[in-house]
Amino acid sequence: MNKFRIPWKNSVYIRMLLLFIVILSPVYVIGLLIYNWGIQAVKEQVYQSMDSQTAYYLNDLETKVEQMKILMLDSLNDDNLNNLATISPIMKISERRSAITRLQQRLFAIKSSSELIEDVVAYIPGTDMLVSGVSGYDNIGTEDAERLGRTGQRFTAAPELDGQYLKLRAPFPNSRNRKPVFIVEVTISVAQLNASLSYLAQPGLGETAALFRPAEDGIIAGANVSKQVQTMQTAVPPLPTNGEGKSFADVGGRSVFAVYHSSSKLNMTLIKSVTVDTVFGPVRKYQKWFWFFSASAFLIILFFSVSFYRSVHKPLVTVIRAFGKLQEGDLKVRIHRRNKDDFNYLYSHFNRTVKHLNVLIDQAYRQKILAQRAELKQLQAQINPHFLYNSFFMLHRMVKMEDNARAVVFSKKLGEFFQFVTRNGADEVLLAKETDHARIYADIQAMRFVSRLRIDFEPLPPSIQHYYVPRMILQPLIENAIEHGLRNKEKDGQIGVSYKVYPEVVIIVVEDNGEGLDEAGRRRLAHQFEESSEQDMEITALINIHRRLRIKFGADSGLTLSTSESGGLAIQVKIAVGGGERVSDIDR
């Protein structure tokens, strides 16, 4: 090491660092400070103005709605309303007309208390009567009756959106367990809300304002509502009770700034947005200075780059080219340089590392092959027939019932199945034999569950019958579909096995019509596939197959999950044709 140690004043790194700090920092830091100070000052002024406007409007709207609720609840004690709801059938016609008139006058007085109120209506379901502060007496229509049946039994603490109107309702009595005797409903005009919001949003300045409920009704009312507001409302995060904040978003290539406040009493959020170009016009004078300093910084960086190229870039290119040759397999590559600088130390270690690699490469390569072969043997040994006992019990029942014909077929298939499972001579089999084994297993299960299960196999394409694949990659997938996918199906269970052949890949699809996996379940299992190389992970049947396919055919092969056309789980077995690292080919 001492051989390559050089004085600090000759170090390329120190010289370039000092040159960059001395020349560039003062110029650019001053420019950034001036520009950022101007930007922040204008932003704060705009934010304070918009924030105070939205807060005042929302507080004023809360006050008006609370006043409506007070008047609405007070009207529940009206004698005329109570008489019409309880003793209307025994009232004289003149008395009933007089009560309706006085009730209408009171409802109209409530309507006149706010310019936002469209109408105030009292519904009396028992007598099929409604009294409107605007239009007077009428019968309850079918549409109103259905609506009141759905929503009329609860008091609305916050206005509910109903078409072009917001509704406040007060039933009497206010109980979910009792049918209301009468209901007083205040209708708030969305058009009037739009008009009131227009004072917050001036079109000439690119301003917009809107009331919305993010999780329910979307935009309720607004002024100059456009894609700008619709985009901004999606940028508003979930707010706590009476929360507030600000946000930036890109809308149609333009930057938009928004301020929002939420109200727990109204269950609404008010958002006001404005285009940044409109509001931050005064900042452009700072931009001129910023561009001046940026141009100066660019010239300085250009000068610095030339110096850096000569002192640092050329040596780095030399190292990169050497690594490129090493990557191509040239283990004789060496770096020789006359100049004694920081990179000479790197060159020396590179040369020693390449020399050491020559000693280790053959040993490491062979260890990798042996380790993969051992892992393949270990994974294949994990697969055991889980249905052993049930199959023998079924064979016992067939013999006991003297169903000799089925017993002969069943015992033959069972013997063929275990003959294949216990044959450990080869790690791989022809795809045709693997498919035959899976079909035998399917026939056994179909005989066991004849009343609730059907398994369909497409014919194996002749072009892929000669492919060698790891043993037992299809039967466990059918077993998984029966034990998990169709576990809760008492009848009409279906499993299908199909094949798709492409120039670069063969796909075998095993799908069922069971319950399937939700998106979270598929993501979790896919994550286990990706992490399945960890030695401490429990190896399931699916992960077992996924790993063996990757060991055999490479990283482009393995299992993928999706939803079948019938709503169940579809498992695709991907086999890369001629791709990947093929351990068996190396051994042969």
From TrEMBL:
GO terms for cellular component: plasma membrane. Coiled coil: none annotated. Residues 310-362 form the HAMP domain. Pfam families: HATPase_c, His_kinase. InterPro entries: Bact_2-comp_sensor_kinase, HAMP_dom, HATPase_C_sf, HATPase_dom, Sig_transdc_His_kin_internal. PANTHER family: SENSOR HISTIDINE KINASE YPDA. It comes from the Bacteria. The chain crosses the membrane at residues 12-35, 289-309. GO terms for molecular function: phosphorelay sensor kinase activity. It is found in: Cell membrane. Signal peptide: none annotated. Keywords: Cell membrane, Kinase, Membrane, Phosphoprotein, Transferase, Transmembrane, Transmembrane helix. The keyword Kinase applies. This is Histidine kinase. It is a multi-pass membrane protein.
